[in-house]
């Protein structure tokens, strides 16, 4: 049983290794083809006159910018679709919140309607602070002694 497990693991690793090797070989072939195309293009450009080389360079840049522009247009369209979707979800959520507030409006025992938007007023007791510590006047000598120690 243990040997079969090891054998199965070894075969699995071998299969993965062979798949990786095949993928890398394909990648190398694609890279070689791209390099050959670039070399042929370079040789063709080198044979052209300086004006034609400039024209070719401009044409290449126009092609690159056009492709980049199309990619950006697609991105903008996707973002606009996403924005519309999110706005729709926001409207639905706001409607749910409003409906929930309306359904939760309770009648208080005195007969008044409870308003959830009502602000709460908190009253604070005003104190005269002398510093960062609060203490009783009679504890002052003990506090000073502890601070010195």
TrEMBL record:
User: Which keywords does this chain's UniProt record carry?
Assistant: Coiled coil
Coiled-coil annotated residue ranges, if any: 3-96
Q: Does the keyword Coiled coil apply?
A: yes
Q: Which domain of life is it from?
A: Eukaryota
The protein here is known as: MYO5B protein
Question: What organism does the record attribute this protein to?
Answer: Corythaixoides concolor
Q: What phylogenetic lineage does the species belong to?
A: Eukaryota, Metazoa, Chordata, Craniata, Vertebrata
Q: Which gene name does the record give?
A: Myo5b_1
